[in-house]
Amino acid sequence: MAFRLEETEIEGILLARSEPAEDERGSFARTFDAAVLRELGLPAAVEQASVSRNRVAGTLRGMHWQQPPHAETKLIRCSRGAVFDVLADIRPASPTYGKWLGWELREGEPLMLLAGAGIAHGFQTLTDDAELTYLISTAYEPAAARGARWDDPLLGIEWPEPPAERVISERDRSFPDLADAADPGAPA
After folding, report:
1. 64 in catalytic set
2. Checking DSSP bridges between strand 60-66 and strand 111-115, what pairing results, if any?
3. Which backbone phi and psi does 182 adopt, to 5 degrees?
């Protein structure tokens, strides 16, 4: 049984994989390992844990982040259903500024995502009753909460076609484009 992190083409975005031990009873998997994070110089403390429950397929949340000095590192896991999860580099000085990566996360699968400071997060549910769980390094600070539109032209995220009407909160619909967001992210 192991917990491993894999780099992606965007610094600050890592894939986390649990490798379950299985036997006739089922399986047991490690979904967090502070020592592995510390070895990479990442925040290993969990300040908060959160759950996002979503009733219908096609629900879209994002793109969200917290502005420094309250920038978060998040470990994201799908605990029910399925989602298309997106992480985007919003650090203006980064060579990958404006680039995004997306993955399908599904209940029971070992893939998790680790989003570091300066990475925006969003997702669209692919099933009804989808749920994400988060382990977060920093306490939520409402004054530091920021966002960019889900259809921001600079990001150009290719969201899957929803099975029905897309459900988006008024708050998420009203976010500015990333280019217009004040102090979008941590330095690269």
Report:
1. yes
2. unpaired
3. -75, 130
Query: What is the pTM (predicted TM-score) of this model?
Result: 0.91
pLDDT per position as a tens digit, 117-153: 999 999 999 999 999 999 999 999 999 999 999 999 9
Digit-coded pLDDT (tens) for 39-89 = 887 778 899 999 999 999 999 999 999 999 999 999 999 999 999 999 999
User: Active-site residue among 70, 121, 134, 140?
Assistant: 134
User: d(Cα 76, Cα 79) in Å, to the nearest integer?
Assistant: 9
SS (HEC) of 84-122? EEEEEECCCCCCCCCCEEEEEEECCCCEEEEECCCEEEE
Tokens of 21: 């031990």
Does residue 97 have an active-site annotation? Answer: no
The CATH number of 2-180, from 1.10.260.40, 3.90.1150.10, 1.10.10.10, 2.60.120.10, is: 2.60.120.10
